[in-house]
Amino acid sequence: MNIKFGLKKATIVLTAALLSMNMSAKAGAVYDYIKANNELMIATDANWAPFSYIDDDGVMQGFDVEVGREIAKRMGVEARFITPDWDVITAGNWNMRWDVSVGSMTPTASRSEVLNFPATYYYTPAAFAVHTDSPITTLAGLNGKNVCTTAASTWEMYLQGNLDMLNAPAF
Asked: How many domains does the chain have?
């Protein structure tokens, strides 16, 4: 299969907000609480390999896990991972059960009603693939065709024309 269309490349952006997390004057009470406990409690869904998963030895692994570990390292604290269900993470109202969620989450207007998105560190571009001998050569060629995506995902919202993504990058 060849990727026929989509965005040019995935872009990973570690923003100044992540890098400045070690400035207690700007981070306030949450930062002070994390430093006092010497621990950053990071929520991530453990069922989202290769982004976050538990390996055969019971250790958290994946891209988001490495991002979480790096944030904790730059803050000078230990990373501790907890694995609530995705629906619990995205519902907001964490009530100090964890400090931050690192989960390659698409920042949407509806999610921003219950969550803060201080930094975007990763963008996943949409891409469509067809078999090499397919007559479909443009995005418009998919009109009226059956397309596969993950249920209840931002890509499903995109295909339905309902994606309310905040601060989408221009590629």
From this structure: 2
CATH, residue 32: 3.40.190.10
Q: pLDDT per position in the chain (171 positions), as tens?
A: 333 333 223 223 333 334 334 443 445 888 999 999 999 999 999 999 999 999 999 999 999 999 999 999 999 999 999 999 988 999 988 888 999 999 988 888 888 899 888 888 877 777 888 999 999 988 889 888 888 888 878 888 888 888 777 776 554
Residues 109 and 131 in one domain: no
Residue 9: what residue type? K
How far is Cα 96 from Cα 42, in angstroms, rounded to an integer?
A: 11
Is 29 domain-assigned? yes
Question: What is the helix (H) or strand (E) element at residue 2, kind and residue range?
Answer: strand 2-6
- What does the DSSP assignment read for 6-73? E-S--B----HHHHGGG-HHHHTHHHHHHHHHTEEEEE--TEETTTEEE-TTS-EESHHHHHHHHHHH
40: nearest Cα among 96, 86, 100, 97: 100
Residue 134 is given by DSSP the state: -
